[in-house]
Amino acid sequence: MKQEIEILQAAMQNAILGEDSATFKNPAFQDVVRASGLVAACPHACEVLGRSGIAVLLAHMSASMHAEREIAVMRNGGRS
């Protein structure tokens, strides 16, 4: 189950970051489909995957907000 969770974590991270996903003809697409079915049947695996997805989303949001703040500080001559 660990491998399936890792496959889905990578797919979720790509989606959150706006990166391309595997296309239908790509073998990775079938890996994601297979992993989705297996993980969906296991509540514990769903919880692990959910926590990991939230962690990636929060990290991305935090980095984006910090970058926006830094740009504002630079534009205002060092004043926050």
Major sheet details: none
The total count of strands amounts to: 0
The average pLDDT value, as a whole number, equals: 89
Elements, N to C (H/E): HHH
The outline comes out as: elongated
* Count of all domains: 1
Question: In DSSP terms, counting alpha (H) and pi (I) runs of 4 or more, how many helices?
Answer: 3
Residues in β-strands, percent: under 5%
Span of the ends, CA to CA: 47 Å
The SS-based structural class is mainly alpha
Low-confidence stretches: none
Report what the structure shows.
The protein has one domain (2-75). Helix content is 78%, strand content 0%. The chain has three helices and no strands. It is elongated. The model has no long low-confidence stretch (mean pLDDT 89).
Topology, pairings included?
Elements: H1 2-16, H2 27-40, H3 43-75
Helix pairs in contact: 1-2, 1-3
Can I get a quick summary?
This protein is an all-alpha fold and 80 residues long. Helix content is 78%, strand content 0%.
